[in-house]
Amino acid sequence: MSDLPNCPKCSSAYTYDDGSQLVCPECAHEWSLESGADQSEATKVVKDANGNILTDGDTVTVIKDLKVKGSSLVVKIGTKVKNIRLVEGDHDIDCKIDTFGAMKLKSEFVKKV
Asked: Quick one: residue 38, left, alpha or beta (phi over 0 = left, psi -120 to 50 = alpha)?
């Protein structure tokens, strides 16, 4: 067998070297040997407009009027959003706003209460 580590996602022993990346043929997971197998993804920190660290379940307030795409509605400044959920991507907050429903927000337009 090879001296390459098992896949960190599915524990497959059939990993192979593809240049600077290691690849698992069973689950298609790719990682680099130097990164420590996904530790860099787990350490992503989401901060609000004031630099406070946000976590799942926090309550935040909108600091700027935000137009709702595809609608004529506007989320007004000072709108309180409870029980946020952090997600990956450009809009890193997933939440439910009263009268608007489910939305995604950017953390730069909110502050922690």
From this structure: left
